[in-house]
Structure formats: structure tokens, C-alpha cells
Input
Amino acid sequence: MIRFTAARLVDMAAVLALMSFVIYVLIGLMPGDPIDLMRSADPHMTAADVARLKAVYGIDRPLFERYLDWVRATLGGDLGYSRLFGTPVVTALLPRLVNSLALMGASFALAFLCALGLGIAAARRPNSGLDAAINLFCFAGVSVPTFWLALILILVFAAQLGWFPAGGITTAGNADMADRLRHLVLPVATLMLANLGGYTRYVRAAMRDALAQDHIRTARAKGAGEARVVFHHALRTALVPVVTILALSFGGLVSGALVTETMFAYPGMGKLIFDAVMGNDYNLALAGLLLATATTLAANFAADLAYAWLDPRVSYR
Output
């Protein structure tokens, strides 16, 4: 296990290093830079001023040299300065990261728990009316666009009924926890319903395969109760492929949901990364994208460790 963990950590570091170079090069090759944007906004800036500023900030140097300087600064704990927010990158990133973790974490947990119940119920009664109804619900959930679902929830529960706020993160002048939770209800419900159909289909398919295996028939023949057969024997086997899907979804906890955050004016990581890329805020965009990459890699590593716990046949010796 120690050798496996060390090897995976080395692989993760190599992937992060490669991704940092690729992202840095792609952002650096985008047309325009902060100095060009300053010149377009200030007609009195001369060509000599532009050249001097590019020399001061090192933009006139080759891209690879600038990347090496960024690596040295990052390893020293300096992620740079955000041009859009006028603050250090860490100061601009952390509040949005907390917001996205609250939004995506709550929607992810609720969608997974509901998917477990619906998927197990459908798998236990294949080709029944319940199975058909759950499948219809799943296909509808997968087919409905996220922006349309968000609009419906806003129209019904915010505009018509007035139960929840239509957007934002807190009410002006009111920053208590209850108010923040009210603002989370509609975006969390949107993301949960958007992901529930896909998760349920994965759980249903995995549970149907698990319930058809020989050891399940053996457990039933030995007189094991239905609850023990389903939750102790079949579910652990079925969760092995489902964990892989969930691990791949963990990158969204950091990268955020751009459409949902835009519809509800929610200040999360998705909108932050989008604004940073469109605004040529190199340092902020690079930090946000690398954070999403690192989260995805860590989630896949956690999934590999979970395989051994779910299935005793898996060994990393």
C-alpha cells in the first residue's frame, strides 16, 4: 500500500506539472495581454509606455521563461495578483471556493443519496411499473437543460410563491446562516435534479448486475434476510463501478457549475474561472483550473483506495 500510494502521488505531481504547463501556454497564447488591454482603455498611453510596462512585468520575455518564473513563485507560496479583483489570487479564490463547496457538496450528497434509494428500488423490481416510472424520471432529468430547470424553479418558487430568493448568496444587511441556507435551496435543487437521473441509472445498472451474481443466490439460499442481501452483499459490489463515476464528478466541486451560478447570480468557482479566462486574468485562471485538476486527481486516488474497502478481492500489494 505504501509503494502504491507513493507511486500515485508521484503520478499526480507529474500530471499537475504537465497540466500547469499546458494551461499556462494556452492562456499565454490568447490574443491580447493585460498591457494591451490597458492601452486600449487609455488612448494617451504611448508605444514607449507599453514597451516599458511589458518589460517591467516580464511579458516581453519568451513564454517558457515566464512559466519557469511562475513555477518558482508558486512553489514559494506566491500565486500572483488578480488583475480583475485587484487582490492577491488567494484572497480572490478562497471565498469563491467556499461558496462552490457549499453548493456542489450539498447537491452532490443529496443527489447520491436519492440515487441510491431510487436505483436500489428499481433494481430489485426490474421491468415492473416502479422500474418504468423511475427510468422515465431519469430520462426526463437527463434530457432537461439545466438553465430551463433553473428558470422553472425561479418562476415557481421565487416569483410566484415567494418561498425562496431568486438569486444571490445573502440578503443585503442580513448575513446569518438561515438566510444563506434559503439562498442555497434553489441552486442546490437545480444541480441535484440535473445529476439525479444519471446517478440513478448508474446505481440501477450496477445493482442489477450485483443481484444476479452467484454469491447473492448463495446468501439467499443460506437464509439471509433481504435487507442483508441488498445492503451488505449486493450494494458493496455495486458501488465499485459507481465510485468511479462519483470520483470523476468531484472535479465539479471546485470548477463549479457555470450555468447554475449564472442563473442564480451565485459567486462560485465556475463563474470566477470563466470571468478570469475572458478577462485575461492569467494568474487567477491558472490557479482555478489547476485547483480543479488537483481535486479530480485526489478524488480518483480516493476512489482507488475505496475499491479495496468495498471489494476484498482488490489488493494493492
